[in-house]
Design brief:
The chain is α/β, with parallel strands linked by helices. It has a single domain, classed as Rossmann fold (3-Layer(aba) Sandwich), CATH 3.40.50. It is 29% helix and 31% strand. Helix 5 links the parallel strand 4 and strand 5. Helix 1 runs parallel beside helix 4. Bound molecules: S-adenosylmethionine. S-adenosylmethionine binds next to strand 2.
Length: 207
């Protein structure tokens, strides 16, 4: 997994350009309405989503496995704390967070890793805190492609394994981490003109 992301960021740089995902814009509004300010962004990338929160006065910390992605974030002027390592090694600090925003990262983990990751986030979340995640959906056209690994999990490209969720597996994996809301979303691919949107599930858990 690390090799896959490291080589992509090293070779392609800021491959999704600088505009934040629509779900980050949604999270920003939701967090603001809940007076949430201190947030964690696991799977930080080079910070295209983090910048939106930072520019809006949020206190942000990140976790990112790729050193090249962190370098890109630093080169673009992002100064917040970014822990370099895998989310499977959480916690990286003793902070309590009011919110977690995680875009398209959880589905990259295997089942025990997903459980450990969600437990670690939950442990660092304050009571009533919100965790907002987008995850790959079985509605996505990539579901069922590539090499079968286990139920609903495929190696869709060399070194890139993805677990695809439906509403049942979302409830199954997230409901022990608070009150869960799940909806289907379509993320526009803003950096490729004419590209079809990506089908994801937006999962919101309140501790
Ligand atoms: C699909 S990308 C999304 C990046 C970023 N959230 C964005 O939207 O711009 C997934 C990100 O998670 C990072 N990642 C993958 N596995 C990770 C892990 N185990 N721990 C921390 N980061 C990880 C990748 O390097 C990559 O930056």
């Amino acid at each position: 997994m690390i090799e896959y992301w490291e080589s992509r960021f090293r070779n392609e740089g800021a491959m999704w350009k600088s505009e934040p995902a629509d779900s980050a814009i949604f999270a920003l509004q939701l967090f603001k309405s809940e007076k949430i300010n201190r947030i964690l962004i696991p799977g930080f990338g080079y910070g295209r989503n983090a910048r939106l929160f930072i520019d809006n006065g949020f206190r942000v910390s990140g976790i990112e496995i790729s050193g090249s992605a962190i370098n890109l974030a630093r080169l673009s002027g992002i100064e917040c704390a970014i822990h370099h390592g895998s989310v499977t090694s959480m916690p990286f600090d003793n902070e309590e967070y009011e919110g977690v925003y995680c875009y398209a990262m959880i589905h990259l983990l295997n089942k025990p890793e997903r459980k450990k990751f969600l437990t670690s986030c939950y442990n660092q979340l304050i009571k009533n805190g919100l965790m907002l995640c987008t995850v790959a959906s079985k509605e996505n056209s990539l579901f069922g492609t590539g090499r079968y690994l286990s139920k609903d999990r495929y190696e869709i490209a060399k070194g890139l394994s993805v677990y695809f969720y439906d509403s049942i597996s979302v409830l199954d994996e997230f409901s022990e981490f608070g009150e869960v809301e799940c909806k289907d979303i379509e993320e526009p691919v803003k950096f490729i003109e004419g590209a079809a949107p990506v089908k994801l599930k937006l999962v919101i858990c309140r501790k």
